[in-house]
């Protein structure tokens, strides 16, 4: 019985590590993203609204990023980032 429990524990730990590693190596595709979707990717530990507020603040405080986004037609109230805007966000902030 003890051997069986140890095998289950090893399997559980193995699955947990595999899931973590899979999440860590996820490549972010350049495509349109909802603002809340991208914000949650950068800050999964906080609420959706707080994540959107944080991402918006990061954008406003990063002048080169903000200027580059403005040149694409970015408006702070838009709900979806275009592919070009996502590319710029990844360039200046890194991938989530």
Which key terms come to mind for this protein?
96 residues, mainly alpha, two-stranded antiparallel sheet, 67% helix, 4% strand, globular
Description of the structure:
By secondary structure, the protein is mainly alpha-helical. The chain has a domain at 28-93. The protein is 67% helix and 4% strand. The protein is built from five helices and two strands, in the order H-E-H-H-H-E-H. The chain has helices at residues 2-24, 35-42, 48-61, 63-70, 83-93, and strands spanning 33-34, 80-81. A two-stranded antiparallel ribbon has the order 1-2. The longest helix is centred in the N-terminal third of the chain and has 23 residues, at 2-24. The radius of gyration is 19 Å and the shape is globular.
């Amino acid at each position: 019985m003890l051997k069986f429990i140890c095998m289950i524990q090893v399997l559980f730990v193995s699955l947990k590590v595999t899931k973590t590693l899979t999440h860590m190596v996820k490549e972010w595709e350049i495509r349109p993203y909802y603002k809340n979707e991208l914000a949650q990717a950068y800050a999964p530990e906080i609420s959706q609204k707080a994540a959107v507020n944080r991402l918006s603040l990061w954008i406003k405080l990063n002048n080169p990023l903000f200027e580059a986004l403005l040149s694409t037609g970015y408006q702070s109230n838009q709900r979806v980032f275009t592919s070009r805007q996502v590319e710029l966000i990844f360039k200046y902030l890194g991938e989530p």
